Fold each of these.
Amino acid sequence: MMYLKNYPISISAILIFLFFSTLSSPCMAHPDILMINSYHKGYPWTDDLVKTTIGAMKERFRDCNLYVEYMDTKRIKTAGYLNLFQKIMEEKYRNRRPDIVIVSDDNAFRFILHTHKKLFPGTPVLFMGVNNFEPAMITGHPEITGVVQSVNIEDTIRVALTLTPGFKRVAVIYDNTATGRGYRKQVLETEESFEGLDFIHLNGALLSTDEMLERVETLPANSIILLCIWVRDKTGAYVPWERTYPEITKRSPVPVYGVIDYMLDFGVLGGMVQSPKYHALEAAGMAERILRGESPARIPVHMRSHNVLMFDYRAIRKWNIDEERLPDGVIINRPKGLYYKYRKWVWGAFGTLCFLLLVIMILLGNIIRRKRAEAALAEREEWYRSLFEGSLDAIVITTEDGRMRGAGFLDTKKRNYQD
């Protein structure tokens, strides 16, 4: 039959096809992954992005090689510095081409748009944390896709209307960084949905940090604050967030709502916040698809990132908000009670108590067995005593080898003898 003759040829053709497909497949067991971050190590958003991304990629590719770079553009962003950073990248990765480049936030994204074809021609690029994104930005860049950082400001304000009823003003705090300008754009788009509210913009392009704080202190009682970002004021100097955010919530006479989860550790009440962990996990899933052979051009940009409804328990108490009015969400920093505070001591004491109870039970068991043995011995002695004393004959008890163990003698008082 004809198909029997062609059968070996078909098998050979399939094996050859699979062999060359394997050689040409971009899926790899040890991918080289380069991550370029816009900001510096120690910036909380960046730290969580890096930590989560590395963990997620290690789970997917156990033996992957990760290289992490920081542009530090929150603190310095001059043309000369950016040119120097580009030269460093050229020299550093001249003979080390990564299999994928992951960029976080706007400045790294814009950097890779301008240098991609020169630094990493043909290499797939995945972005995340980008605020000011327009699809036209990646026209002519089929190797680029990613996750847009979108904050749900509208839902945060609607939650505020429920928890802080009666306010008429929203003081929006943002700086003049690329991230701040992105938040400003999203706030302006949101204002159209709240015609009855007056939005006051505390803009870092126009205010110093001290001027912003003074404006915060003088806000009327019928206001709330929406804190977006403040790390650089009109002087151009970098302002550490760990100093500014606690100062804002301390001086504010009204509740402060936020847009990122780590803000809640500094007195921010809450809101529909972004989490860099969810953001990084979403991006890592897309990176895996690319490294396993899927073309970035076939993976659409995710225009809306994941947001979580989250509140700070301490701020809830500070502003006397009834928890029953809270929508379903996450509450952090809730006191865990004495047990959670002293649980190590509790479990240590419990273990000691169990050990002592075990010792007591063993001792009680020994006492009970000893008393039983003593009672049995006394009963046996009484039986022998009655046997010997009540017998009218002489009794001798011997061992098997003839040695005498005991003897009983005749009680002449209890028997009459006759000759």
Amino acid sequence: MISAFKKFPQGIKEPLFMFVIFMVLLTIFRFGFYLIFLDEMGKLSAEYLLNTFIIGLRFDARLSAVIVLPYLLLSPLPFVKGERMQKIWNGYWIILFILILGFYIADIGFYAYLNTRLDATIIGLVKNFQISLLMIWESYPVILGSIFITAAILIFNKIIARIQSLQNEIQYRKSKVIPIYFLTIFIFIGIGYGKISRYPFRWSDAFYSTNHSANQLAINPVLYFLNTWSRVNESYDLDGVKEYYPLISEFLGVDNPDLENLNFSRQFKPPLKNKKDPNIVIIILETFPAFKCGILGNPLNPTPYFDELAKEAISFSNFYVPKLSTAASIFSTLTGLPDMAIINKSSTRDPFAIHQELLINQLQGYKKHFFMGGSANWGDLNGFLKNNIKDIIIHEEGSYTMPETNAWGISDYHLLQE
């Protein structure tokens, strides 16, 4: 295998070697995480383990591709060649190795403490840096860990030196090398994209089930940290909630208003009880605002058929969403909560909001289906639904016989026909 690699141009050969090395390292780290938390992870079924490691492998491949792409893109340029630049690239590989190793070590401590993979909230520890350092010193084998890190860096440095010793002196014509470069770059970009689909492989793909352990094992902590970076400062305004609590609690009909504890509990008695469990179909209409509906007050009678349907059904006239976003509407429909996300439009896209108590789970004995004309990866709905609704069946692009109409998949008309 090594002799075959020798025949590649150096600008392609080195990133290929480094891609394989980082993939091996990340896979070892994943197995190490599994073994360290074997008491929890050992309870996963073979099916869960297989799916989890396949998803994890795809995340690791993405990170490895991102690492080697700078070298692949810059190595053909004349000013990034020579012995001096090779030393800079050596430093690049070693620094990234140290960073990744540091991430995985921190990830183990983070999971042991909070039962969740490393995310951007760890930045808050910097605010109490001295206390955090003391806690690390008292809780973890710092000296033994430092010896391990030093040994790992030395071994990794020797591996890099060995790779660079495999240089060949074959001179390739540009007409032969350029197509190989473009093909290699295209392949690595494809690996980074992660899917043959309109939407790329995303953090939410790790949350493919309601099994917490399986989802957590699938995560790549480096990528997950970066995914949560933009969300770390998004939070609630407790003073604002207290200011408007009297008004909101009165509007919602809270049973026992309590400004100190911010009680929002309400008890309802259903006006009727079905003798048998009905089929429940919820249709979310795109760009169909309330002011266009006759039953909601429009005097022009623009929606006679919709009004007739609403009169024969149970109408929830107090349901609304606070923003113009389909994903936010789906979030509010399923959770009963207003979607107040500021970053990236909807809470379905927020890794910190992916765990929710959904009303639909109270429907015992029902099979749950979700239909949409396009991809459920849009708005990270796929992970949000699968993480919270056990055994949900998602019907999306590629599931239908009708051809796609546009970028949003098949039309609503064809979806209802399916």
